[in-house]
Design brief:
The chain is of the alpha/beta class. The chain has a domain of about 100 residues. The protein is about 30% helix and about 20% strand. Strands 1, 2, 3, 4, 5, 18, 19, 20 and 21 form a nine-stranded mixed sheet that branches. Strands 6-7-8-9-10-11-12-16 form an eight-stranded parallel sheet. α7 packs parallel to α8. The chain starts with 6 loop residues before the first helix and ends in a 10-residue tail after the last strand.
Amino acid sequence: MKSGMTRKQFLKTALAGGASFALSAPRLLEVLQVSGPPLDVVIVNGRIVDGTGRPAFDAALGIRGGRIVDIGNVPASAAKQVIDARGQYVCPGLLDPHAHEEILMLADPVLEKFVRQGVTTLINGNCGHSVTPYHSKKVLEYWWREALISKRRSQMAIEWEGVDGYAKAVAGVGATVNSVVLLGYGGIRWGAMGGGVDRPPTEQEYKEIERLVETGLEQGAVGMSTGLAYRPNYYAQTDELIRVSKILGKHGKTYASHLRSGPNGALEAVEIGEKAGCRVQLSHFRGGSRAALDLVTAANKRGLDVAADVIPQSTSHRRASNRMLEALMVFYPGAFDYSEAQLRALVQDPKTRAEIVRTVSFFNNDKNDVVIVRALTRKNEGLVGRSIADIAKGAGKDPNDYYIDVILDEDNPVVFAFDGDRREPRPGGRGRGQADPADQLPPGYWTTHARFGPGADSIPVDMDEPYGWYEHQRRGAFAGYFRQAREHKVTLEQAVSRATRLPAEQFGVTDRGTLAAGKIADVMVFDPARFTFPTPMESDPNDPFPVASGVSDVVVNGVPVLLGAKLTGQKPGKVIL
């Protein structure tokens, strides 16, 4: 049957229909979203800061199947769950480029200190410490020898081998937030060379090191880290690191470094990246000087890809006396592979004791600044709040000898602060790198640099032994970062980008760091004016558990983990491979 419609009439009708479709497209999109599979979550009444640096805009954000499906006029009726942003800002989940949570997140998968700052992805494996090589028993021993976990924690009943095996172990426990893994060169060198030895690798050892790095990258590691202030990483020379880092260049991965002590540590890291052909991340860099900012600017102008993370705020570490001997393995020459009995013998011998209290970190502090801030048994409760120097004077003893006596009384541990238990926070920008007093910038000025972002370097608190090792202010690092950025007239859009897109690109974390259709739905909702963390004068700096406030909602992989500032109990996080 013929329609009787001429070609001219057909074209006219088709064009009219096309115009009608174009004019009604927004409404049609709503209809499709409502009538098709429902969205899992829609965030309404928010100001979108998408992480690219472009100006904020009003829009709703729809999520389905763990991904963002639309940003725009998304109706609330299209979703199973509605989050009302109430005029707050909707941003990509933050990425922390400097974390050490890979072991203890197996015991504490909630990681509330990060969730309450809007952090949805951790870059774990920094400072040469990570989840390889070999069986987890070997990894855990290394972590104890680096004084990162207690001897008790090093015997935890969990097993894995390799980056992919570690990811399965985390999946078995669950996690509130995501993480990626850097390979730790300290552990790899120690394992491949059979101990913490002060010499270059043999050719056979080089081949094993290179095999371990190659395998770890193939399994999903995003790069490799060094901790050149810590034994045994301390023994690795520049040419050794260049040779191994060429594997990173081949795979397009990142070299992240806790810099070698001295004025040339950052220059060494840049040289390694330049000669190995890989990206460089300067870990907890000193962003407080013009020289530090200029070094990064100059490297990028030469065509290198160099970025830096800075600890925005910090106070003195707190550490239990019965975990002090661990520091000898890290900082005393030749002691990395010592037994506990050998470590005790070092401080019991008058000759080596004198050397240790003069040269070793955490032992060589002025004893007027070493204060007992907590007693973990009743024996020493009366000493809380007093310095070692003061107590020793009253007992008629040498302060260094008294300090060692307290450390060796392992049945009656106390917690030390090493800064006199001062209540003022350290200014942002402290860390490794240049420290010319004549070249200092105002605190927080580093936030104005496009290649600098925040990295918490938060101490991983063992929830079973919380007073063993902890620190106060780094638990609120991102709140401190946004405050400092605001003080230096950095726009919110720029500040968000440097805490999201910059680390995502620097570590190759794809589909995260910006908000766009098709991206993984890692999202935070917050009010910058209310995003705060208590200063040491506003709370007890000897409390290992403070958290930030001002973030109302957090979504990880499309699943809300914080709603209305309350934890949901969901654990959608994973190790991203």
